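From: lab user (bench 3)
To: helpdesk
Subject: output format question, protein + glycinamide ribonucleotide

Hello, I'm new to running complex predictions and I'm not sure whether the block I got back is the full result or only part of it. Here's what I submitted:
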Amino acid sequence: MKTYVILISGRGTNMEAILSADLPGRCAAVISNRPDAAGLAFAAGRGVATVVVDHKAHADRAAFDAALAAAIDRLAPDLVVLAGFMRVLGDDFVRRYEGRLLNIHPSLLPSFPGLRTHAAALAAGVRLHGATVHFVTPSLDCGPIVVQAAVPVLAADTADTLAARVLVQEHTIYPQAVRWFLEGRLRLEGSRVWLNGECDATGVLIAPTG
Ligand code: GAR
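Helpdesk reply: Thanks, we reran it on our side. This is the complete output you should expect:
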């Protein structure tokens, strides 16, 4: 059975969705860069080991990345799942886990990388917004796309209502992508994502109406 670790920085609702999805793999630990991350309590309550690698305890990004990689490597996971992990990871770290490092971002990448994606989508006037699960590559919020979910942008939306609608979809597509990986159906080859032995089957776009 494959194992995975989940990295969080805060409330951890995507982590909750993954831990609640009855996946065919074992979560070896939830790792946070913040000792006060709310999601740690949920993980502990589920009997999942929790680890804190406090970024404030390290002099620079390289030192933090090295400590984080050491914590991950002690657990020897098959997959590293970034779920609301809000530290930028250096190129060496990303390359170390190439092909087994997934992230979720709250936009239809490559639109709206970075922070405050929902406000940016509203300001841009897009009619569709959403979320993206992707393999992580050295550039921020970018990398080969595994699955995206789209939601309509409504006239009455605020950044908060739009974020809530997107989050519902995040909780569907992220456990799905992790499941594919754990089942051995999902892999990265060069810059292409393969699902079920095909490289055109991914990028599945779900467009729910509400
Ligand atoms: C999620 O919306 C996730 O997509 C986003 O942070 C939130 C974490 O929520 N991630 C990023 O912005 C990464 N660039 P959660 O802690 O409840 O899962």
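A quick orientation on your result: DSSP finds six helices and ten strands in the chain. Let us know if anything else is unclear.
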